[in-house]
Amino acid sequence: MSESNAFNSNMYLPFEKGLHELDVQIRRLEELSKRNNMDFGEEISNLARKREEMAKELFSRLTPWQKVLVARHPARPQTLDYVGAMCEEFIELRGDRCFADDRAVVTGLARIAGRRIMVVGQHKGRDVRERNACNSGCPHPEGYRKAILKMRLAEKFGLPIVSLIDTKGAFPGIGAEERGQSRAIAQNLQEMSVLRTPIVCVLIGEGGSGGALGIGVGDRLLMLEHAYYSVITPEGCAAILWKDHEKKEEAAAALKLTSADLKAFGVVDEIVPEPVGGAHRDPKQMAETLKAAIVRHLDELARIPMDQLVAARYERLRKTGVWRIAQAAGVEVQETARAK
Amino acid sequence: MAWGSRRLGAVQPKNVQPEGQFTKCPGCAEMLFVKDLEKQLNVCRHCGHHLYMGAWKRIRAFLDEDGVEELFGELETCDPLEFRAARSYKERLEECQARTGMKEAAVIVRGRLKGIPLIVGVTDADFLMGSMGSVVGEKITRAFETAAGDKLPVVIFSGSGGGARMDEGILSLMQMAKTSAAVAHFGRTGLPYISYITNPTLGGVSASFAFLGDIIVAEPGALVGFTGPRVIKQTMRTELPKGFQTAEFMCEHGQIDMIVHRKDMRDTIARILSLLTGKEPVGAERATIA
Ligand SMILES: [Zn+2]
Question: Is there a domain that residue B22 lies in?
């Protein structure tokens, strides 16, 4: 059985029912042929072809809400998976030197395709224990402070930064507030905007508002095809603007949170294609594709003089937003202010 | 400052019926005479509760009377997402504009504080919850850029229950990064930026320019934090400590420099600016409170 079919039934998302049924049929025929020593080769390859077409079709027209579900899939590769698959070397560096080591944020020295880098990433954790330790990837102020501390280290030693974003949002808790969640995020935005080293940010899964942005200011923003990036979760938006949690699908569509939307707004520089069926169906291929994209951008940025790089980073942020200028005569001139 | 002029006469404290002469204090439930309340800068004379103060009333109370000039008032809001929830963004925006007489949540002016020239920004918590969309972000950013060019200090009064504005999606979120970058570049000029936090300041406004002041001042009782108390209570299923996320609470936890009574805002900020820059405040003091 191929690795991509090695799914148990709870790994399928609600909209993947058709895929699930075909996978079950394929598996049955495979078992049957093994047990009875019969050849169902043709039937199996027909079904496999059908499944492939169905998956391609399904994933080429995912609704925004379906993308949110894919981005949140429990088997979706996480920061440490990518680090393991993309980097020849990784030495984790822990702690914020103030209060704690927030496991929701992973930082460390790494080598990717021979290039020395600093990795910063949000990590959700896989099993219950790891998820508890990581607070499911929702950072406390310590996580943001740890991230900026290691980024300053990167600046000092001339290492480019690769930031992997994957969080539902900053941790909503009493301690997080007491210890300055707002300040921690704000400080990262401020410092990352002027750090004198290249920064490549990648949205690998969930981009939950300020909690995601807190490690997300840089020279490039790449986004995996089915990742999402939003000012608020669809559920939160539905609760506030519809006063109804069940309107999350409508909210996901209204928020324009998909990679294609963000590319159109000029917020995202490049969409990194995912394997058919999502990154979790072929993590190895996903990591290879992502690695190639990251290395390409690192090499591009390495050629830009530092003053020019930092100036361009400001220009990049400076252009975000859309407004118009009212004119005295009442004629309005549309000023689109988009990155590209 | 066409909008400003229209706004000046029309300011009403929140929770006050325009036709009513009295309003109930949210702090102590005393009935307050509106005319009297306005003379007190919307501070309850019984319990000291700081009631909402609109952007233009704030500017009038804070700055010297002469030479206030609105900046970037020509920036107008678009609807880049063509956002539609139960109601459309356009509808909500227009209704808010009609109700408040303002075009957007942020007002930026150039003026003087006891003779010291400066740039002042206010985000008005009553305009779409003081949320930051493209125009608010752009105005705040331009405020820092203009101040850097003209070598002026910046004071920003933030009030935002809404944080980044949902209706402009990711573009709102990016305003957090944009304004923070503007503060970073402004910081290199050696000019002071004082962040003045008013009730409430949460989310994307809190986690960007509001918490990046060289000095962070807050009004008594102001709600300040990243995640709002209701969400924390619901998510964590826990009781919140007494006074959680009030300015006083945050001050005790080392998040802000000081709490300043509204009647002292002119004096205190002028003294801070003077101590930071060596510029002496000039001009006669005028009564800011009856
Ligand atoms: Zn009172």
Answer: no
